[in-house]
Design goal:
This protein is α+β, with helices and mostly antiparallel strands. It contains four helices and seven strands. The chain folds into two domains: 59 residues, no CATH class; 95 residues, Pleckstrin-homology domain (PH domain)/Phosphotyrosine-binding domain (PTB) (PH-domain like, Roll).
């Protein structure tokens, strides 16, 4: 087999693919199917040798439900940080990340405040004001902020599903069209 031949040739358990689709639907479902997902994954784990990523996805779902509970009570989470880039603003989220589309910023940190999303890394700061963001999209461990014409404003790559899911959820609440709907 050639060096890169094994990429894409692995056969995945169809049950895991179905489970991942159900997990993605559960992100927006508000907790009604979370216990079912855990039970289904326990069943799949008996025949599938590697469910580590799916376990990480379940952890992300649990983290999301906790933050949704806070937001559902009319509050935004608050993260203690003394980072000078937020200049006294209240921070709602922070996590290590990369900017996959900017090769000069290999790694850094994403911070979300009421007025902007900030990436700090490699001695540079990139800021995206919420009033410019029309859409927030999450694909796996990446979050994309886009203008109304679909052009990207920011692209964050996270180390885990939990950070990506929380960033996308909170960004969706902080952008102007959702600000009134905590």
């Amino acid at each position: 087999m050639k060096l890169f031949g094994w990429f894409g040739t692995q056969k995945r358990n169809r049950g895991l693919d179905d489970w991942r689709r159900a997990w993605a639907e559960a992100i927006n479902a508000g907790g009604r199917r979370d216990a079912d997902l855990r039970a289904q994954l326990d069943t799949l784990a008996a025949t599938e040798p590697d469910v580590e990523v799916e376990l990480e996805m379940l952890d992300a779902l649990e983290q999301l439900r906790q933050v949704q509970g806070v937001v559902g009570n009319g509050q935004m989470p608050s993260v203690e940080t003394q980072h000078r880039v937020i200049a006294g603003e209240r921070c709602h989220f922070t996590a290590p990340a990369t900017m996959p589309t900017d090769h000069t910023q290999s790694s850094g940190r994403v911070l979300l405040t009421a007025s902007r999303a900030i990436f700090v890394g490699a001695g540079k700061t990139s800021t995206t004001a919420w009033h410019m963001v029309h859409e927030v999209a999450r694909v796996d461990r990446e979050v994309l902020l886009a203008r109304s014409d679909g052009t990207p404003l920011a692209h964050f790559g996270f180390n885990n599903y939990g950070d990506a899911v929380l960033c996308a959820f909170l960004a969706g609440r902080l952008k102007p069209s959702k600000r009134g709907r905590l």
